[in-house]
Specification:
Elements (H helix, E strand, L loop, with lengths): L13 H13 L7 H14 L4 E4 L2 H11 L7 E5 L8 H5 L3 E5 L10 H7 L4 E4 L11 H11 L2 E5 L7 E2 L2 E2 L6 E5 L12 E4 L3 H10 L23 H11 L2 H19 L5 E3 L6 E2 L6 E4 L6 H10 L5 E2 L20 H9 E3 L8 H16 L17
Helix pairs in contact: 1-8, 2-8, 9-12
Length: 385
C-alpha cells in the first residue's frame, strides 16, 4: 500500500489554511471575533434551527444543557449503558445521579423498552446518544419523556448529518449537543455546539458560557458563569470544514457501503443496523464479530500489522471506577456483548475509496482465515482502544 489507512483522523487542508489566515489577519484569535457568530449562524442553517450557541466542547454543551434545566443533586438522569464517558460525566458535574439503561443489539442505541422501568419520581431527563452516527429511536423516547414530564437532551456529538423522521439529530429534544473534536464529522480542533427550540434558554446559555458577563456593565457578572466559549480560530476551522460537509457525508456513506458489501455475508459478522425511519451519517462504520472463541484483540493485532487500524467499541460505563456502583456487566447484557464483539473500522475522510476497499479486502481475507482462540484477559484489557 502506498498510503496509510486512517481510522478517524480529520481531513484538513487549503480551505482551513485560508480561513485561519483570515482569522489571524483580522486580529481576532481568541473568544471575541466575527467568525464565531458566522459559524453559529451557519450551523443553525445546516441543522434547520433558528439559533445555535458554540461552546468549547461537546462535554461543555451537555453540561450547559443540564445546568440550564436546573438539574442537580437529588435528581436522576437516564443514560445509555454504552456510550463515550463524556455523555455521563456532565451528569456528575451538576451533582445528579446517572441511571443506566441497556442498548439494543441491532442499533446499539438506548433501548426505549427499558427506559420506562428506569424512571422514578427523581428522574429529570433522558440523554439518548446517536451512537457512531446512528440515531436513537426518538419517537419512542420523546413519547416516554412526555408521559413522565421529563426533559430530553440529545447527545448528537457523533451524529452531525444524521436525521430521524426528516429532522436533524439534535433538534428533536429540549436540547441537542454536538462535538467538533478532531475525529468528528467536522472539526474545529475542539469545540462544541448546543441547540434548542427554546430561545430564552439558549440566550441564557450564550450569556453563561461567556462567564455570565453583563455586557451593559463592564466586568460585572450577576451569575456564576463558565469559560466555555469557542475561539475565533476554532470557528475559522469550523467554517472551512462546513464547506466540505456534504462531501464528507457522502464519503462516509460510500465507505459504509463498501464494508457492507464486502463483509456482511461472512459467517458471524454483522454491521451496526440503521435505526428505522432515519438517515445514518455513518460517522464510524462498526461491525460485530459473533464467533465462539474468537480472539478479537488478536484479530486487531493482525489487522494492524497489515496496516488496518481498528478500535474497540465503547465498554459499559459501569466498568469505570467512578460509576461501578451503578451496575455490572450482568445488568447490561447487550452493552456487554457489544463491548466484547464490536469494532469500529477505518472511516476517516482522509482515506480514498481505494484505501477503504483495500482495508475491506484485508478484513475479509483475515476473517475468512479464522481466528486464534480467545486469550484470557480482564474486562478492562479486553476493551482497550
Amino acid at each position: 500500500m502506498s498510503e496509510r489507512i486512517h481510522l478517524d483522523a480529520p481531513k484538513v487542508g487549503e480551505a482551513e489554511k485560508r480561513m485561519l489566515i483570515e482569522a489571524v489577519e483580522s486580529g481576532f484569535v481568541s473568544v471575541v471575533g466575527p467568525l464565531v457568530d458566522r459559524f453559529q449562524e451557519r450551523m443553525a442553517a445546516v441543522l434547520g434551527v433558528k439559533q445555535a450557541v458554540s461552546t468549547q466542547s461537546g462535554t461543555a454543551s451537555l453540561h450547559m444543557a443540564l445546568h440550564e434545566l436546573g438539574i442537580g443533586p437529588g435528581d436522576e438522569v437516564i443514560v445509555p449503558a454504552m456510550t463515550f464517558i463524556a455523555t455521563v460525566n456532565p451528569v456528575s458535574y451538576v451533582g445528579a445521579t446517572p441511571v443506566f439503561v441497556d442498548v439494543t443489539l441491532d442499533e446499539w442505541t438506548i433501548d426505549p423498552s427499558r427506559i420506562e422501568a428506569a424512571i422514578t419520581d427523581k428522574t429529570k431527563a433522558i440523554i439518548p446518544v446517536h451512537l457512531y452516527g446512528n440515531s436513537a429511536n426518538m419517537d419512542a423516547i420523546i413519547a416516554i419523556a412526555r408521559r413522565h414530564n421529563v426533559y430530553v437532551i440529545e447527545d448528537a456529538t457523533e451524529s452531525l448529518g444524521t436525521s430521524y423522521g426528516g429532522r436533524a439529530s439534535g433538534t428533536m429534544g429540549d436540547f441537542g449537543c454536538f462535538s467538533f473534536n478532531g475525529n468528528k464529522m467536522i472539526t474545529t480542533g475542539g469545540g462544541g455546539l448546543v441547540v434548542s427550540n427554546n430561545a430564552e434558554r439558549l440566550d441564557h446559555i450564550q450569556f453563561l458560557v461567556n462567564q455570565a458577563h453583563d455586557r451593559g456593565k463592564k466586568y460585572f457578572h450577576p451569575e456564576v458563569g463558565f469559560n466555555y466559549r469557542m475561539t475565533n480560530i476554532e470557528a475559522a476551522i469550523g467554517l472551512a470544514q462546513l464547506e466540505q460537509l456534504d462531501s464528507f457525508l457522502q464519503l462516509k456513506k460510500t465507505f459504509a457501503t463498501i464494508y457492507e458489501k464486502g463483509l456482511s455475508d461472512l459467517d458471524g459478522v454483522s454491521l451496526q443496523q440503521d435505526q428505522p425511519n432515519s438517515v445514518n451519517a455513518r460517522w464510524l462504520t462498526c461491525i460485530r464479530i459473533e464467533r465462539e472463541g474468537f480472539d478479537l484483540p488478536g484479530f486487531q493485532t493482525d489487522m494492524l500489522a497489515q496496516g488496518v487500524p481498528t478500535r474497540r467499541v465503547f465498554m459499559p460505563i459501569t466498568d469505570f471506577p467512578p460509576y461501578s456502583q451503578h451496575g455490572t456487566r450482568e445488568d447490561f447484557p447487550n452493552a456487554s456483548t457489544l463491548a466484547s464483539e464490536g469494532l469500529t473500522l477505518p472511516s476517516s475522510t482522509l482515506n480514498s475509496l481505494e484505501r477503504i476497499r483495500e482495508a475491506c479486502d484485508m478484513l475479509r481475507s483475515t476473517l475468512n482465515r479464522g481466528s486464534r482462540q480467545t486469550i484470557s484477559v480482564s474486562p478492562s484489557e479486553s476493551n482497550l482502544q
